[in-house]
């Protein structure tokens, strides 16, 4: 998948307009020293007031044109850049949010932010490169009209310099890619440590975790310094060569003026163009580094988007609850894969995974995602009312990202409350009470039953679990092995007659 080529294709019209406007701006910039030199030779030197007014007016129109072209082109290109960066973030997010995907959090963070920005910057680099080429060409032609040797210094010297600098691009790309990869590992490690801080403290593994992060962090620092050193040397070389080229033009022009080969106005034009050429020379010299960085980031994005799902979920769910039924499922093999079979994106189906996901904000913002009717009943059914009551701010209590400051049981209860409040026609729960105590688990089991399965209810609830408390409130229990039904009945009947069920559930 060529991310850069696709970015150009889907922004082609704004990119084309932006390139034309930037090229026009650079051409006008290059013409400014020419107009000033002509003003000196044709108006100032002759003492003609009318010519002075005419050439000054032309200079003013030139500045107006270049200003309008720049502002309009920059606006178009910045919009294209922002849209492309946003589109890349959405694609990466859609890929990693696939329940079958396997991605390290730190990698996702750097790819969806830094790499998405760097790849989309190509839409800014292309117009700048084209503008620099136009400016260099116009300047070179202008110098040829004054002196062919001066023009040839620009028109011949510039390609030679660029070809030489291009040889460093592959090394820059490799080192930038390494830097981004190692930075992703460091971010992932930091995220894992923060998320698992309580268990680490519980087993006394803080020092080992700290040593691991210190090692990854130092590796990231080394990669960053190496990439920065390479880019710095490349930039220093490009600036030095560009400056020497511009200085050579100015020195040669000064010699021509002293020997009478060019006029005072032409000298002003040459000096002005030499000073102006520093910017396009710098842009063209830096272009290989820009492209290398964009390519390295695009490759990392493409790796994420090309990744095959870790678990294939093709096929239909093996069992479904009847209307109004609460169905228990004991999956002897691959319960995670089973749960994923129900996640088909239908608005009538909601799958609440085993690991609850919370985000930074208030308790209310984590639970109430749309309508809040029946919130009190939902909080009681999920035993989340205790979590709310434990904080002076209640529902307005602020929780940190991923609910890191909450216990596992508190996170599970808030996530369950959110799922119950959505009122889906089919709710699939995967071990929603593994982190709560036995008393709370029984209360939650009864709460789910009473909330969703009152007389006349058409809701269906499917609970994948081995919890006796949850299975005891179901209407029916199905035992699955390798996707096949091997036993069915009530919790009580299976517990009495099926030794395998007793071993899995009543242990």
TrEMBL record:
GO terms for cellular component: plasma membrane. Its main location: membrane. It is a multi-pass membrane protein. SUPFAM superfamilies: ABC transporter transmembrane region (SSF90123), P-loop containing nucleoside triphosphate hydrolases (SSF52540). The keyword Membrane applies. Keywords: ATP-binding, Membrane, Nucleotide-binding, Transmembrane, Transmembrane helix. It is found in: Cell membrane. The chain crosses the membrane at residues 49-70, 129-156, 233-258, 270-291. Residues 16-285 form the ABC transmembrane type-1 domain. GO terms for molecular function: ABC-type oligopeptide transporter activity; ATP binding; ATP hydrolysis activity. Residues 228-507 form the ABC transporter domain. PROSITE patterns: ABC_TM1F, ABC_TRANSPORTER_1, ABC_TRANSPORTER_2. This is Multidrug ABC transporter ATP-binding protein.
């Amino acid at each position: 998948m060529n991310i850069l080529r696709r970015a150009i294709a889907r922004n082609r019209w704004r990119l084309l307009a932006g390139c034309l406007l930037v090229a026009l701006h650079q051409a006008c910039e290059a013409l400014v020293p020419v107009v000033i030199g002509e003003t000196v030779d044709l108006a100032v030197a002759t003492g003609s007031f009318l010519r002075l007014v005419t050439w000054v007016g032309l200079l003013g129109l030139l500045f107006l044109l270049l200003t309008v072209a720049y502002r309009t082109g920059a606006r178009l290109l910045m919009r294209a850049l922002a849209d492309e960066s946003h589109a890349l973030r959405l694609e990466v997010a859609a890929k990693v949010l696939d329940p079958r995907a396997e991605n390290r959090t730190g990698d996702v963070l750097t790819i969806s932010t830094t790499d998405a920005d760097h790849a989309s910057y190509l839409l800014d680099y292309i117009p700048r490169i084209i503008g620099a080429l136009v400016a260099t060409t116009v300047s070179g032609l202008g110098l040829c009209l004054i002196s062919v040797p001066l023009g040839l210094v620009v028109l011949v010297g510039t390609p030679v310099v660029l070809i030489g600098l291009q040889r460093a691009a592959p090394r820059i790309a490799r080192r930038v890619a390494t830097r981004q990869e190692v930075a992703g590992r460091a971010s992932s490690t930091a995220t894992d440590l923060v998320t698992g801080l309580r268990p680490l403290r519980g087993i006394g593994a803080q020092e080992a975790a700290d040593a691991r992060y210190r090692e990854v962090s130092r590796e990231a620092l080394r990669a960053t310094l190496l990439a920065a050193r390479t880019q710095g040397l490349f930039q220093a070389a490009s600036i030095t060569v560009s400056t020497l080229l511009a200085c050579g033009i100015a020195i040669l022009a000064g010699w021509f003026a002293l020997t009478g080969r060019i006029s005072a106005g032409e000298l002003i034009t040459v000096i002005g163009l030499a000073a102006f050429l520093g910017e396009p020379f710098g842009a063209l010299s830096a272009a290989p580094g820009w492209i290398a960085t964009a390519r390295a980031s695009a490759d990392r994005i493409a790796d994420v988007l090309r990744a095959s799902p870790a678990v294939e979920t093709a096929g239909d769910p093996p069992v479904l609850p009847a209307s109004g039924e609460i169905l228990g499922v004991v999956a002897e093999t691959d319960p995670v894969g089973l749960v994923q079979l129900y996640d088909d994106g239908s608005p009538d189906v909601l799958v609440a995974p085993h690991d609850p996901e919370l985000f930074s904000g208030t308790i209310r913002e984590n639970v109430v995602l749309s309508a809040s009717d029946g919130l009190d009943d939902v909080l009681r059914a999920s035993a989340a009312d205790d979590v709310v009551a434990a904080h002076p701010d209640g529902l307005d209590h602020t929780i940190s990202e991923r609910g890191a400051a909450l216990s596992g049981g508190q996170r599970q209860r808030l996530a369950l409350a959110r799922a119950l409040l959505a009122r889906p026609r089919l709710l699939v729960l995967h071990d929603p009470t593994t982190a709560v105590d036995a008393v709370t688990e029984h209360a939650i089991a009864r709460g789910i039953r009473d909330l969703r399965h009152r007389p006349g209810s058409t809701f269906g609830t499917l609970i994948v679990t081995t919890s006796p408390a949850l299975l005891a409130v179901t209407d029916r229990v199905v035992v699955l092995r390798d996707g096949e039904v091997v036993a069915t009945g009530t919790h009580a009947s299976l517990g009495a007659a099926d030794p395998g069920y007793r071993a899995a559930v009543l242990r």
